[in-house]
Amino acid sequence: MNLSLKIATGSLGVSLIVLTIKYCAYVLTGSVALYSDALESIINVVTAVAAIVAIRSAARPADANHQFGHHKAEYLSAVVVGVMIIVAALAILREAYGAFLAPTPIDAPWSGLAVNTLATVLNAVWSGVLIRQGRTHRSAALVADGKHLLVDVVTSVGVLVGVVLVVLTGIEVLDAAIAALVALHVLWSGWGVVRESASGLMDEAAPAEELKRIRETISTNTGDAIETHDLRTRHAGKVTFIEFHLVVPGSMSVERSHEICDRLEAALKETLEGAIVTIHVEPEHKPKHVRSNQMGSFAQAEG
């Protein structure tokens, strides 16, 4: 079991514990805001399961039907997470509307607040772990799960403030109002997760800083080649696909040009872990930007 899968499995365990704690807080108080908070935690469990399935799928090797691998499975999982966040927001809005029409008093508020605070702290710590590890290991599923938990933390803080205000002011309808405001925040966050994850499914290019490193690596490892051009990149989970054309002198042997390609591929894989490199070798009458006395120059002529 790889590290990402271990973290995702741990996330499922944490989500189940948090769900239990939050539901206990709701039972103690009868607060619709705390109930809404617990309702969102059910989505945490579902998204943790989705992350586990996605990471397992993404780790599968290429096969006859998926010759470029299964790396995009994590993006699909992240989109599912975003959709589930939106569903949770709509469910919270529904509960808030019902409570607005028929507000009820909150029982044992301080006990419920203490229990819910415990769950909130646990979620805050674990969301930080997920986001940090997800970015380190380039796991879209872990990052999405961590961001969802972070939204849950904000939700919980808003709910706690709402319950305190209800207790201090005696205005019971504030319970529903705070739940509705939190739901709107959750709705916006869910849309953000969907938008960010969809970019990976659309073969978005490598970010600017990463692209700069790729260009520098190519420029310093072209050897006797004339130039490179038509650089294209795309992300698929942990993998970065890199493609470009390499122009060599017409007199250069196939063996020599192959050595240059091998050196470029090794250098790029050292620069970017998990890079998959495709190089198209062309004769010298094909350059796009010939620069005199600059062998191995990089022509920025993407597209």
Automatic annotation (TrEMBL):
The Cation efflux protein transmembrane domain, residue ranges: 11-202
Keywords: Membrane, Transmembrane, Transmembrane helix, Transport
Transmembrane segments: 12-35, 41-59, 75-93, 113-131, 151-171, 177-194
Localisation per UniProt entry: Membrane
InterPro entries, per database record: Cation_efflux (IPR002524), Cation_efflux_CTD (IPR027470), Cation_efflux_CTD_sf (IPR036837), Cation_efflux_TM (IPR058533), Cation_efflux_TMD_sf (IPR027469), CDF_Transporter (IPR050291)
Annotated membrane topology: Multi-pass membrane protein
Similarity field: Belongs to the cation diffusion facilitator (CDF) transporter (TC 2.A.4) family.
Protein name: Cobalt-zinc-cadmium resistance protein
Native source species: Mesorhizobium escarrei
Lineage: Bacteria, Pseudomonadati, Pseudomonadota, Alphaproteobacteria, Hyphomicrobiales
